[in-house]
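Project standup — Tuesday

K.O.: blocked on the structure for the chain from last sprint. Re-posting the sequence here as requested.
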Amino acid sequence: MISCRLYGVTSALILALMGVAGGENESPDSSPNRLSIAHEYEVKTAFVYNMAKLVEWPADTWHSPGEPIRFGFLGEQPSRTLIKKSFTNRTAQGRPVEAYVVATVEEMRQCHVLFVHRDEYHRLPIVARAIRGRPVLLVTDTAVPEPAALLPISPRPKPVVHFVVVDGKVRFQINPEAAREAGLVISSKLLRLSWPVDLTKPKPSAGRMEDDP
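H.V.: unblocked you, prediction finished:
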């Protein structure tokens, strides 16, 4: 079996993620502290793709070197056009990439990364049953900081990554417990960039990230 290990992850990728996180709203019709929906999901889609490079899945997740990493998106955002633009002819961890809008439970089961749009939260119990016991990087989002979204409220699954928008910028929180339960290992680089689940704690530093030991 081939293990997707995080050898040689560079500081350049971390700096790219920091640049995405700091992306300002480019819409002239919006206030400086408010993202347009289009720009918000451009940023989140870029995040989702790059985060997959900083996650280690169990060694038996794939059965051959050419098997793809599958990204599933549940909801109206990001759009099909944006998904196609963001993932066509891409690779991650040396594997080809497949990305699609999820329409069935079976497609949920096939995902390695599953993004659930905030308008689809009513389907989270279905998601929980579909991915139970599978190494899936579950990603959710809200329009405002909501630490409660990371709490284990049964039958709602705990996301590994949760996006929030703070001061017009996309930020993300990581739930290490949810990652462990899914059998995933999150790079310490990515953990250092995440916002705390408890938003009363200090924010992450925007300084230079050192290499993992």
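K.O.: great, moving the ticket to review. Residues 1-12, 23-32, 147-155, 205-213 have pLDDT under 50 and may be disordered. The radius of gyration is 16 Å.
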